[in-house]
Amino acid sequence: MSAMTDEKPNGLAAYITVTAAYWAFMLTDGALRMLVLLHFHTLGFSAVQLAYLFLLYELMGVVTNLSAGWIAARFGLTTTLYAGLAIQIAALVALAQLNPEWSLTASVIFVMCVQGLSGIAKDLSKMSAKSAVKLLAPKGQGGLFRWVAILTGSKNAVKGFGFLLGAALLATAGFLTAIWAMAAVLTVILIGTMIFMPAGLPQGKKSAKFSQVWSKDRNINRLSLARMFLFGARDVWFVVGIPIYFYAVLSDGSHEGNRAAFFTIGTFMAVWIILYGFVQGLAPKILKAADKSTTEIAQSATLWVAILTLIPATLAAAVALNLPQLTPILIAGLLIFGFVFAINSSVHSYLILAFTSDERVTMDVGFYYMSNAAGRLIGTLLSGLSYQIGGLPLCLATAALMAGASTLAARELTR
Q1: Distance separating alpha carbons of residues 264 and 244, to the nearest angstrom
Q2: Dist. CA 214–CA 225, nearest whole Å
Q3: DSSP 84-153
Q4: N or C: which end of the chain has fewer CB within 10 A?
């Protein structure tokens, strides 16, 4: 349970500071993901082994979100935000200690553990930033939807630049230089955030109990279930399937061929995430949310995820049939997927804050993002397994099934 201090925060100043810190974190998060994926693929890791590298990252996201809401309620939002940035710095420094002479098994275990630290850092930062918006956003006339859409959309655009940055740094500066550079920049950001953060955000309440994390609100539970399947539907093709498929298509195995493939893959992933973030930011205008009630917005969630289900199903058929001009078809189809997915994601991000109360915001947001992390965990595992078993068609077909499950869960929000 959160407690406000006597001093009211400067809403806009606090929002800008929190957003800037979150941007910095997500830039390094996106770059680190691309660095790890492409670097270890060139070392000979299989699709399943690459998925393993991210499993602990997603698993720790589940654990962290379950407890992060309680930690923030007890110790304060700024504490969890600073902790997220500090842990990410520690993870980057640790990853720089990777020894190329270690065995494959030792390398996989070590990188899994480092990624686990990064997963803790990401979800501490995310929960802190999203919860702060609930407390800082202006009331009425779509203010909450607008502020959360701007935060979420801009974050994903920055993360997209991170994908491009990671691929570019790997191709030019190398793995270790890239890691140390990101650690140094993030350290400066952490210090700056601590200096410029306005006073007045919730400082925590010692009486907050861990048992209060579990939500008893039916809408929050249904929304969390829909969120889990929604993000599983994305990550089942996004994490391993598409990058490895494009690498196989684009690279001839030479050093120059690898560099060209890295840039192309990084550019595609960056453009996808940036456009996804841009659409998220526009979602309130696209849906004309200022003129709609929360119930009407909840109903739109079902429609958009139903549309989403059709896209990976169609692309799976196109790949299975090996249609002419398959690569352009895939790129266009995945960009359309990104547009529809962004509307879904933005609606969900608004609804969790609309459904919760100021008193329970950190608890409910933590519970909701635990489901988000669970979906990413399931999607990451299935991405490696489905690509290993049935290639890209099975990845995309699995994505369609998970989007369908999200549709069924979202339907319950309208009743």
Answers
A1: 12
A2: 14
A3: HHHHHHHHHHHHTT--TTS-HHHHHHHHHHHHHHHHHHHHHHHHHHHHHHHHHSPSSTTHHHHHHHHHHH
A4: C
Domain with 347 in it: 11-414
DSSP secondary structure of 26-46: HHHHHHHHHHHHHHHHHTT--
Place of tokens 């595609």: 268
Distances from the Cα of 247 to the Cαs of 125, 127, 208, 220, 276, in angstroms? 32, 34, 49, 40, 22
What's the rounded Cα separation, in Å, for the pair 371 and 223?
9
Q: Is 6 inside any structural domain?
A: no
Quickly list DSSP for 318-356.
HHHTT-TTHHHHHHHHHHHHHHHHHHHHHHHHHHHHHHS
Is residue 379 included in any domain, yes or no?
yes
Which of the four pLDDT bands, split at 50, 70 and 90, describes residue 257?
Answer: confident
Other C-beta atoms closer than 10 Å to the C-beta of 184 total 12
- Rounded Cα distance, 112 and 94, in Å: 12
Contact call for residues 259 and 403 (beta carbons, < 8 A): no
Contact 65, 374 (CB under 8 A): no
For residue 407, give Cα distances in angstroms to 15, 225, 255.
Answer: 33, 10, 44
How do residues 200-238 score in pLDDT, each as one tens digit? Answer: 555 555 555 555 556 677 888 889 899 999 999 999 988
C-beta neighbour count of 216 within 10 angstroms: 8
The residue among 349 and 399 whose pLDDT is bigger is: 399
Domain count, the chain: 1
pTM: 0.71
Q: What residue type is 264 in one-letter code?
A: T
Q: Is residue 80 part of a domain?
A: yes
CATH number for 158: 1.20.1250.20
Alpha-carbon distance of 16 to 198, in angstroms, equals 10
